[in-house]
Specification:
It holds the Pfam family OATP. By secondary structure, the protein is an all-alpha fold. It has eleven helices and no strands.
Length: 332
Amino acid sequence: MTEPAREADERLTSQEALCATDTKATKGPCCSTLKMFIVALSFAYFSKTLSGSYMKSSITQIERRFDLSSSLIGLIDGSFEMGNLLFLAAVSHFGAKMHRPKLIGAGCLLMAIGSGLTGLPHFFMGRYKYDTLIQSSMNENISISPCLDPNAQEIPLKPSLDIDKGCKRDPQSNMWIYVFLGNALRGIGETPVTPLGISYIDDFAKPENSAFYIACLQTIGLLGPMFGFSLGSMCARLYVDIGFVNVDSVTITPKDARWVGAWWLGFLVSSVIMLLAGLPFWFFPKSLPRQGKGQREPLSHQDPPDHSGPHAMKLTDIAKGKLPSPFSSHRP
């Protein structure tokens, strides 16, 4: 081989090596950034399901602490769906045209503020005071409504409309409004997480990989309720004013009907978790090169964008050879 030909081969080899280096440099950041986004979104899924399950588990403690009626406690429990429903369509429509990772980060920050606001009334309500004596009924042969005062001088033996008035309870404090607003704010903050996160993965991942990534998100999200209910069970065993009063002076136990657990503690924990979950989204780019495209473009610039790889072409050839085609009927 002559010297000019040898130099041409060496130059061609150098160009191919440079092309391969560019391909790896293009593919590496794309795949690593997308996978980092999936990990961050999985943690956000975990934190939002943990907070939601903890709210369900502590609703009884909130009812006892604020002395709420069933209608008000149902309103507080449904405030999350109210906030989520009001903003879900708007955020999904307009958020797709904006910086989706930053919107998800803002949603996590909003959820963290909502959880913190839910547990905040504990620090402004004063100490919990429970009755030291449980009074029994005066006469076991007389049916007395549980809503009436047993110390009353006259006990009506016949049902009347006054009994329904005695069943209506006024809340012990108006601080329950902050619990309502915090839960609604948490519902508003959750609106961009699922639709914008899944659309971001679907836009920049391979079609054959996007389903697997979404399945991983759902799997991690299923772990949230397990830890959320465990956190609720642990906080329910702690006295509501733990850290502010001497626990040894408390004469009731968690088995007592007057017991109120530390319902506020889990909301502060979930607020910190959601705040940490939202931090990575502020550093992701608005868009990424589609996964796998950086590997094909330097090798062949003349291929169409939807050109399948060699493996897909091989499967197509096999299908053509094995499956009958309705357009391949032979004419006589």
